[in-house]
């Protein structure tokens, strides 16, 4: 009898956590899906599917809010891309001239930049400075060493360990695989 109550309490806590996740992110997910699909009903369907997958994922409610948000937006983007691919294979256009209706959508780049910036904030200032100088500013190891007044070997070491830590942070967020 007590075990049944514990299971019921755990389900209740999970439902409350998922309700809170829904309340915080569902509207933004729908707007994001709408911008990508330009179809209100499809956007609603995608968000519903994402939230259903969130409900099925027992680990999602234990993640911090930023990681859960990143997971929700990534799954939304993947579902929409999957729908585009499947629709494209079923509805091929057989004309000689195809109208160019392409619309630039930078949402995936924005999400990627947001995830990287958030992950970079988890690094030490030393690691962040050398990674930023090397990858965002395009500086060489020698230039970074001169600017920071440290040996080139230290720059290389900080790059190595900083990138390794960055990879671990992204893995914890579910962005990359091990």
UniProtKB/TrEMBL annotation:
Task: Please give the organism.
Answer: Microlunatus panaciterrae
| Similarity remark | Belongs to the sigma-70 factor family. ECF subfamily.
Annotated RNA polymerase sigma-70 region domain ranges read 22-88, 119-167
Gene3D superfamilies the record matches: 1.10.1740.10, Winged helix-like DNA-binding domain superfamily/Winged helix DNA-binding domain
DNA-binding as a keyword of this entry, yes or no, is yes
Signal peptide range equals: none
User: Does this entry carry the keyword ATP-binding?
Assistant: no
**Entry keyword set:** DNA-binding, Sigma factor, Transcription, Transcription regulation
Q: What is this protein called?
A: RNA polymerase sigma factor
């Amino acid at each position: 009898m007590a075990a049944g109550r514990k299971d019921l309490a755990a389900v209740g806590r999970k439902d409350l956590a998922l309700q809170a996740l829904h309340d915080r992110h569902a509207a933004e997910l729908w707007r994001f899906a709408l911008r990508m699909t330009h179809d209100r009903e499809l956007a609603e369907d995608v968000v519903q599917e994402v939230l259903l997958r969130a409900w099925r994922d027992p680990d999602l409610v234990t993640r911090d809010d930023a990681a859960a948000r990143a997971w929700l937006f990534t799954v939304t983007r993947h579902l929409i891309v999957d729908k585009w691919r499947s629709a494209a294979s079923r509805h091929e256009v057989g004309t000689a001239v195809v109208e160019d209706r392409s619309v630039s959508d930078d949402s995936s780049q924005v999400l990627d930049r947001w995830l990287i910036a958030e992950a970079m904030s988890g690094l030490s200032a030393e690691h962040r400075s050398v990674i930023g100088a090397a990858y965002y500013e395009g500086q060489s190891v020698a230039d970074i060493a001169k600017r920071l007044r440290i040996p080139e070997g230290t720059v290389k070491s900080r790059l190595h360990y900083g990138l390794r830590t960055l990879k671990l942070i992204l893995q914890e967020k579910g962005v990359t695989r091990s």
